[in-house]
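Supplementary material to the annual report.
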Amino acid sequence: MPIAMSQTPKQPADRPVPTSADVARLAGVSRATVSYVLNNTSAVRISEPTRIKVRAAAEELGYVPHAAARSLRAGHTRIVLLPTSHIPVGPLYSRFFNELQWELRRLDYTVVQYGSLGLGADEAARAWAELRPVAVVSLGEIELTPQGVQLLKRSGARAVITLGPQRVEGAHALVMDQREVGESAVAHLLERGRRRIGVLMPEEPGLELFSRPRLAGARKAAHGTDALVEPVTMAYTEESASQLASRWRELGLDAVFAYNDEYAMLLMRALQDADIDVPGEAAVIGADDLLLGRLLRPRLSTVRVEMVTGRHLAELVDRVVRDPDGAPERHDLMGARALPRESS
Amino acid sequence: MPIAMSQTPKQPADRPVPTSADVARLAGVSRATVSYVLNNTSAVRISEPTRIKVRAAAEELGYVPHAAARSLRAGHTRIVLLPTSHIPVGPLYSRFFNELQWELRRLDYTVVQYGSLGLGADEAARAWAELRPVAVVSLGEIELTPQGVQLLKRSGARAVITLGPQRVEGAHALVMDQREVGESAVAHLLERGRRRIGVLMPEEPGLELFSRPRLAGARKAAHGTDALVEPVTMAYTEESASQLASRWRELGLDAVFAYNDEYAMLLMRALQDADIDVPGEAAVIGADDLLLGRLLRPRLSTVRVEMVTGRHLAELVDRVVRDPDGAPERHDLMGARALPRESS
DNA sequence: GCGCATCGTTGACACGTGTCACCACAAGCG
DNA sequence: CGCTTGTGGTGACACGTGTCAACGATGCGC
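Predicted assembly:
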C-alpha cells in the first residue's frame, strides 16, 4: 500500500549534475586547476589558498567526478570484472568472494560483479568487453571460449583468469580441479573396504560444472581396482531423497559419495527413515565440511576442500595486470582431504 | 607451481583497441554511418549494401563499442547499482538476487554489483555516484544516510530504493520489516504456553541489522503479557553452542527463538547432547525454513519468511525510473508465518 | 636595464560516441 | 529550365575529464 512520504522541497529535476567546470567557475579558477587540486597532482604546484577555494567550491556543489569521462580520457579503467554466479554457492565461496573483493579494493581496483544470466558465452564476453575491464576473473559458470578471451584481450583486458574446472586457451588459468574431491572421497571408501560405490549427482541444473568433474575423479580413484562406481541422480527435496532410499537395496550399492554435504545429509536421513543402517549397510560421505553435517547422528563424513585464498588470487590479478606478457601461470588451487567421521 | 602454457603468437600489446572510426575507414564510409548501422537507428535510411559493408568491417575488426564513451555522450546510463552483500546470506536471498537480476536484464538494465567493503556510508555513496547509475537498490547493509541519498540523486540517480529494515529520508522505501519474524515466532511460543523465552543473537558481526529488529519484534509480541524475553548470544561454532547449553538450566528459560535455522540446529543438538529434552525442557524455533532443519529429530520448528519477488522489485525500479517524481511508495515486503513442527 | 629561472595558472587538445543539420544528387512535375 | 521532394550519406559538435605546452608575473643576479 503506497503511502506518501514527507514532502521535501524538491529541486527541479532538470538541474544538471555539476561538473568540474561548474566548480572552476564558482572558485574563480580554470578547470585545469580544479583537476590538479582534486587529484592531488604532485607534478604541478598550486598555492594553498587556491586549493582551499577549489575544495570549498567542490564541496558546496556536491561535485562527484564522472567515472565514464575519466576512464575515457585515461584510456583504461581499474575495473576487475567478476561475472556473477547464478548457481547457489556455498559458504565456502561466499567467504572466498568477499575476501577477494576486499583485497582487490585494497589494491585500488574497482570490483564489478556483472551478471550475464541468459546470455550465451560470446554474447557475454562482448557485453563484458564494453566495460573495458582491465581484468576479468571468470568462475567457470559461463564457459568462456578462446574467441571470448581474445575479444576481451583485444578490448584492453590485460588479465583474463578462469577459475573453473577446465582450461581455456589464451587465458591465465587458475584451475580448480574438482576431480580431486571425488578422488579423495572414493579413495577413502575403498580403504574402508567398500566396493560398490554410488556417486550422487544433483538434478538441479547449473551444478554439472562441478558435479561432472567430481564424478570423473571418483572413477579415476576406482580405476584399476575391482570396485564399481555408478552415478545416481537425486533432486534437493525430501521426496526425491526418500524415493532414492526406497530403491537403495535393489541398487546393490554399499556406499555413496554425495555431491556435497547438503545432499549427503538429505540422503542419509532418508536412508535411516527407510531402516537402512548407516554406515553398516551404506557408507555416506559428502563434501565441503559443512558445520551442520556434524549435527546428524552418525556424524557425516566429508571431504574438506581447501580453496585458494582471496588474497592470493588478488595478488595474482595484480601481477598479471602489471605484466600481462609475463609467462602465463597455471595454478592448482584445490586441496582435498577426506575427513572420516562416523558415517563411513 | 607455475607451468608455461602453449605459446600462442601474441599480437603486440600496443595495438590499439578498434574504434568506430576504424570500422568506418575499413568500410569506406563515414563514422556517422557506422553509428547508424550498428545501432539500427530507424530515423535514418541507409542502403542495404552499405549496411552489409559496415557490419562486415565491424566483425572483421572485432569492434566492441566503448560503454563509457557511449554513456558520456548519452548523458545517462542504464546501470542499476546493487551494493554487494558482505554478510553470509542464505539461500532465500541468493534466489531473490538472481531473480532480481534476471528481471532487470529483461528490462534492458545493466546490473552492477559494486562492493563497498570497508567504506563508510558517505564514502560509499560518493563512490557509487561516480558510476552515474540510474538506480540504486541498497539492501540495508550499508546504512545509506539522507545525505548519501541526496548525493546520489544529484548525480543523476532517478531511483534510490532501500530494502533494509529502516527507512531513509528521500529514498523510495521498500521496507523489509524483520520484526515480523520475531513477532510470529514468539507469538507461537506463547501460544504453546512458554513464558520465559530466550532470543538467540549471533555474535558474528554484520548480522545486527537483521537480528536486532527480530529481537524487537519478539519483545513486541510479549508486551502486555506476563512472559519474559531475554537475549542470549552465541557464535556459529559447536563450542559456543555447547557452552550455552551447559548454562541452560541456570538461565531458567523454557524456550528459545534462534536468529535462523542454522543457529537453531546448532543449539538444539547441543541441548540434546547436554541431556536437555527438546521440546520438553526447551522449545526451539528458528527462521527461514531451511530444508536441512527438517532432518533433525525432533523436526525443527521455524518461521517461514516470504520475501518480495525479484520481478516485483524490478518492476518497481523501472516504474520509478520512468517517473521519478511520482509519489514515493512504501511497501512492506515481508510476510512471516510460524511453521510449527516438533521442536516447539 | 636585461636575461633567466621559478612559481602559479591556464588554454587547448584528445579520448569514443550519438545525433542534428546539412549536402549532393537524382527524379518528378509544371 | 526552375522548383519541390526524396534518397543516401556526411561534417561537426557536445558529453566531462586529464594533461601538456605555454604564458604572465615575480624575483634574482649581473
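Residues 1-13 of chain A have pLDDT under 50 and may be disordered.
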